[in-house]
Design brief:
With 128 residues, the chain is an alpha+beta fold. The chain folds into 2 domains: 41 residues; 80 residues, Immunoglobulin-like. 27% of the residues lie in helices and 43% in strands. The chain has 2 helices and 6 strands. The strands form 2 sheets. Strands 1-2-5 form a 3-stranded antiparallel sheet, with no helix packed on it. It has a 3-stranded antiparallel sheet with strand order 4-3-6, with no helix packed on it. The longest helix is centred in the N-terminal third of the chain and has 26 residues. It is rod-shaped.
């Protein structure tokens, strides 16, 4: 005759091992915490830039107006470029912006060009 204990062992019922589930839960919690921290720290160091306009001064320069949004007090560096009719780069300037008291700053810079530009814009910005 087969006892209930033997049947439980045969079909995997009865006393369960909890240690693998506890370890798995701790690992999953750690992964979620690390991913959350990486997301928060990356968003704290993000920089946003918006083009506000441009003025072609002459055939060798263009003035670019733009807005930068970054964490207060952090220095920002932006790459500003001038393009011709065929979207070729005819001028490039790296602008260093000291950290300010506000989240958003509006700026203008003049980019020297090798030929006449038809537009000017911010290529990218980053925390210095």
């Amino acid at each position: 005759m087969t006892t209930a204990l033997e049947l439980d062992k045969r079909y995997g019922r009865g006393r369960k091992r909890r240690m693998p589930w506890i370890i798995g839960g701790v690992i999953a919690l750690a992964v979620v915490a690390i991913a959350g921290w990486m997301t928060v720290s990356q968003s704290m160091n993000s920089v946003g830039a918006n083009d506000l306009g441009y003025e072609v001064v002459d055939e060798h320069s263009v003035t670019v107006h733009f807005q930068v949004s970054a964490t207060q007090g952090k220095d920002v560096v932006c790459a500003v470029e001038a393009l011709d009719e065929e979207f070729g780069v005819v001028g490039w300037k790296v602008v260093e912006i000291p950290g300010g008291d506000s989240h958003t700053q509006q700026l203008s810079t003049t980019v020297p060009t090798v030929s006449e530009a038809t537009t000017g814009l911010v290529n990218t910005c980053w925390i210095a």
